[in-house]
Input
Amino acid sequence: MGSELITERPPGDRVTAADATSAPATASDAPTEPRPEIWFRRRLDLRTQLREVWQFRELALTLAERDLRARYKQALLGFAWAILTPLMLMVAFTFVFMSYALFAYVGLLPWTFFNSAVSSGGSSIVNNMPVLNKVYSPRELFPLAAIAVAAVDALLSVLVLGVIFLLTHTAPQVEGLYVVVLVPVLLIFTLAITLATSAVLVFLRDLRHALPLLLQFALFATPVAYGLDAITHNSRAFLLVYSALNPLGPVIDGFRRTLLFGRPPDWPALGIGAASSLVLLAASYKLFKRLETGFADIA
Output
C-alpha cells in the first residue's frame, strides 16, 4: 500500500494570497455565467444590413410572386378580390356613415394597403419558417415581400378610383401631385408596424389571433369612414398629438385634401406623423434584429 505525505502548516503561519488562489475550487466557487468582458455583443451596421437586403432583392421578389400566385391561384375571381375588398367597404361606409363614395374610397386606399401589409407581413416569419431555416437570407425580406404583395393590390385598387372619378363626373385636383409626399410616410409607418409585429408574433403566438381584432379597432380609430376633424374637433394641439400617435391620420387626410378638395396637406400634422414614423421604424428595426437570432430556436 502506498503512503500519503501529509504536511501540516506550523502554528502561526498565515495563509497568503498565493496560497489561497492555488487552493482547489469547490462547486460553489464555479462561475455561473461568462465573464462580462467575453460577452457577445451584436453590433448592427445599418449600411451593411441594407446592402445585404439589396443583394437578396431577387429572393424578395420571388417570395412576393409566390404569395400572389398562392393567394389567387384557385380563386374564381382571381385578382378581382384585390379590388372587391375596398369596394365592399366603400359601399358599407357610404350607406352606414352617409359619406359619399369618393370620400370613403380615397380613405380606404391607404388603409387597405396598411391592413393587408400588417396582416400578411405579421405572420410572414412564422409562415416561412421552413424556408428561413434552410436558406440563408436577411430575415426582413419576408415582411418586405408581404408589403410588396399589398402594394400590388393597392395599385389595382387605384385603377378603380379612376373609374369612380368617371362615374361621378369628377376629376382629381392638380394638388393630387402631393401624393408623392404622402406615400413615403405611409410606407415608412407600414414597414415599422409590420417589422415589429412579425418579430413579436414568433415569440407571442397569441398575437396571431389578436391581430385581426387590433386592426379592426384601428380601422374605427383612424379617419377612414369619416374626416379627421371628427377626431380632433378642430383642436390643433390634439391634432398634432394624434398625428404622432397615428401617422395614418394625416396621411389619409392628406389624400382627401389633395385629390378631392384641391388643398395641400396639413404640413405640421404630416411632418409630426413622418417624424413619428421614422422613430418608430428605427425602434422596430432594432427590435427585429435583436429578436431574429432566436427565430429558429422558437420555431
The longest helix spans residues 141-167. The CA atoms of residues 67 and 143 lie 12 Å apart.
